[in-house]
Specification:
Helices cover 40% and strands 23% of the residues. The chain has a 6-stranded mixed beta sheet with strand order 6-7-8-3-9-10, sandwiched between helices. A 4-stranded antiparallel beta sheet has the order 2-1-4-5, covered by helices on one side. 44% of the residues are buried. The chain is an alpha/beta fold. The radius of gyration is 18 Å and the shape is globular. The protein has 11 helices and 10 strands.
Length: 257
């Protein structure tokens, strides 16, 4: 089976700053893959390259075997490559339903506003926001805005969904709810890439982990193996984590990170 997403020697520099440098990996259909790394590692830049926000300085991106290196964001969305944004910014003066309907129209999955709103109602129900559909997006709490961001992405009917820090700013119970929602999304057949800082989330959900450091791919593999990689510990997790981790269970220790 061919990979859903193939990335070969992908690079991006802004002037003399190399934000992403010669990154290569594949994502298989149905996988849940974690993308981790310290602040400034290049994670969001990489997502922007994959979804057409930035044009790569070098390298190739293939989606379903097609070279999409030069695609634009709306082309990525219509191919089934969708993403959420780290800073959630819904259309504040539109209702929750209208925000999601806009996603359906933008990705070309709905032929009319009425069809878009019908689809939007279903996606809002899927993320637990159906009772909030007529509220203005500006009035939502942070956890609800995160769910709205997911619903907007789902309205594009993605084959691959890149989730950029969807748990940032949430408390423990809210994170547990988000984990359950992400599991349901993956169970529906959508391939998921998690860009995350919370090790609890990464280890709970990911089948495989990619680690970026200074724009380069530092490690790739099963979560527990990656967490024990000395280079990853030194570059990202830190000596204090390493000392705890060496004598404890991966998931229980990482949940503190």
């Amino acid at each position: 089976m061919k990979p859903l997403l193939e990335v070969e020697k992908l690079s991006k520099h802004f002037g003399g700053v190399h934000a992403v440098r010669d990154v290569s990996f594949t994502i298989g259909s149905g996988e849940i893959v974690g993308l981790i790394g310290p602040n400034g590692a290049g994670k969001t830049t990489l997502v922007n390259l994959l979804t057409g926000v930035h044009r790569p300085s070098g390298g190739v991106v293939r989606f379903e075997g097609v070279d999409v290196t030069a695609q634009r964001p709306h082309e990525a969305a219509r191919r089934g490559l969708a993403r959420t944004f780290q800073i959630v910014q819904p259309f504040p003066r539109m209702t929750v339903l209208e925000n999601v309907a806009a996603g359906a129209l933008f990705a070309g999955q709905a032929g009319s506003r009425a069809e878009a709103e019908r689809l939007a109602a279903g996606y809002l129900a899927a993320v637990g926001l159906d009772r909030e559909s007529q509220r203005l997006a500006a009035t939502l709490t942070l956890p609800s805005r995160k769910r709205l961001e997911l619903a907007k992405s789902l309205a594009m009917r993605p084959k691959l969904l890149l989730l950029d820090e969807v748990n940032a700013g949430l408390n423990t119970s809210e994170i547990d709810g988000a984990l359950a929602l992400i599991r349901r999304i993956a169970a529906s057949g959508i391939t998921v890439v998690l860009i995350e800082h919370l090790m609890k989330v990464v280890l709970s959900l990911s089948q495989r982990v990619l680690v970026l450091h200074h724009g380069q791919l530092l490690a790739s593999g099963a979560p527990e193996a990656v967490m024990r990689d000395p280079q990853v510990v030194e570059a990202y997790l830190g000596a204090r984590f390493a000392a705890r981790f060496a004598g404890g269970d991966a998931k229980s220790e990482a949940s503190h990170g």
